[in-house]
Design goal:
mainly alpha, elongated, Helix Hairpins, 2 helices
């Protein structure tokens, strides 16, 4: 009998070749207790998958709504800032025009006092509007908490 060479080209030194025995598991009978446990585990896995799928779909929908809302509120806030800037610039140009038309130092003082009062009222109102928009934007943060709760449920 001639010794078999390995695939690396080294001689086998006359050592017999052994193979692992092959078991045909398809013909093995599984005990009923194992079958019941396996079926329960499969059913539990299916239930967990269904719950996770529903929770993740809810979370995705909530995220989409949150980002849409946050984007809209951010755009509203930016638009309000632009509107405020325009209003303040127009008021400043009007004030400069009034100062240029003033005939006396006392008229300058009256215009300055009236402008300060008017500007204080305008800035107060603008600040309240911006605060309200910022609070609306902050509610998007509470929606974010809901998203995390939904994800944790999954």
């Amino acid at each position: 009998m001639k010794p078999a060479a390995s695939s690396f080209g080294m001689p086998g030194y006359g050592i017999p070749k052994f193979e692992m025995p092959k078991f045909d598991l398809s013909n093995m009978e599984m005990p009923e207790a194992f079958r019941e446990i396996a079926e329960k585990r499969v059913e539990q896995t299916r239930d967990a998958y269904a719950k996770a799928r529903i929770a993740s779909e809810e979370a995705v929908n909530l995220l989409e709504n949150t980002y849409e809302t946050a984007f809209k509120r951010g755009a509203d806030y930016n638009n309000k800032l632009i509107e405020i800037t325009r209003t303040n610039m127009r008021a400043a140009f009007d004030y400069v025009q009034q100062l240029l038309d003033a005939k006396s130092p006392s008229e300058l003082m009256e215009l300055s006092t009236a402008q300060m009062r008017k500007q204080f009222e305008i800035v107060s109102a603008q600040s309240r509007e911006l605060c309200a928009l910022a609070q609306e934007m902050a509610t998007a943060g509470t929606i974010k908490i809901s998203v995390f709760k939904a994800l944790n449920k999954a």
